[in-house]
Amino acid sequence: MPASRQRRLSRLLILLVTLLAAAGTSLAAQPAAAATPARVMLLGDSITGNNGCWRALLWQHLQATGHTDVDFVGTQQNPYCQGSFDIDNEGHGGFLATGIANDNQLPGWLSATGPDVVMMMLGTNDVWSHLPTSTILDAYTTLLGQMRAENPDVKLIVAQIPPMNPSGCTDCAQGVVNLNNAIPGWAATHSTEQSPVTVVDQWTGFDTATDTTDGVHPNETTGIQKLESRWYPALTAALGDGSNPDPDPGTGACRVAVTTNSWNTGLTASITVTNTGTTPVNGWSLGFTLPDGQTITSSWNATFSTRTGTVTAVNAAYNATIAPSASVGIGFQATHTGNASAPTAFTLNNSACTTA
């Protein structure tokens, strides 16, 4: 081979090696792909849409506590709240659950947004329209079926709606009570391991006289804060390990003590949960089973998923963190049919606790 040709081949070989090395360095320098954010749809009426500044508080609460891998999704954008937040939502003023179901509107919204979690607070306008509870629950069932058709693994968080007392609607208050009393049973019937349905109590502690502007819509001084404080623990529990900064205190790292006070057909139970581990618990859910015949009628310092049977109590916004050796107190009032004993076994974030 002539010397000149050999030199040209040598230069080409060196150039090729240099380019390959540069490409390898460039590929190695690429950062790992970020985790896909959990897509959360906030589905409701005007209490979620134009009057739903609890959405901003919820977003800001999530960011402040390290839940940054969340994406609110929806075909609506309502930016008119204080601070920065994800404005996407599915809050439609004046809409009824029955109307959304009957008009087949939800599938299009789902197709456009693909949520992993749906937070649904619907029924206010249905009650205002004097529709019976059974009709509203039938609409819930239709909507849940459409959610699962889009995503078989979807998680639904359904709200017991806030009380309402609008001018000229004498049966609205009782209509809300009737609907809310039926929601836990509906949720228990339709919840599955693959696609769980959990309940958030937005009724207890909400006062139409002090927490709304007109007997229906939440005000910005107390109303939206109360709504957000109930949504936050339920959402972080649904997001699970992928979004919760420190969800698991470790097996045996908790202790539970229960004190009960009972009478003829009722009881109260005060539950103290102590973190016996060495690291803080940031976001918690306490699981236990009520004795047969007991039905929870009210609760405090936590959101209780159901009223009977297997119960999950999720932290409030103000007691989400349990420091090592610290405790939180929660409780409930219940009716009973003769068995007023306390639950005997508890789990904290799915880890078994000792009992005192």
Automatic annotation (TrEMBL):
Record key words, sorted: Carbohydrate metabolism, Polysaccharide degradation, Signal
Annotated CBM2 domain residues: 247-356
Classification via PANTHER family: CELLULOSE-BINDING PROTEIN, THIOESTERASE 1/PROTEASE 1/LYSOPHOSPHOLIPASE L1
Origin organism lineage: Bacteria, Bacillati, Actinomycetota, Actinomycetes, Kitasatosporales
Signal peptide: 1-28
Superkingdom field: Bacteria
Protein name per the record: Cellulose binding domain-containing protein
A Pfam family recorded for this sequence: CBM_2
UniProt key word Ribonucleoprotein: no
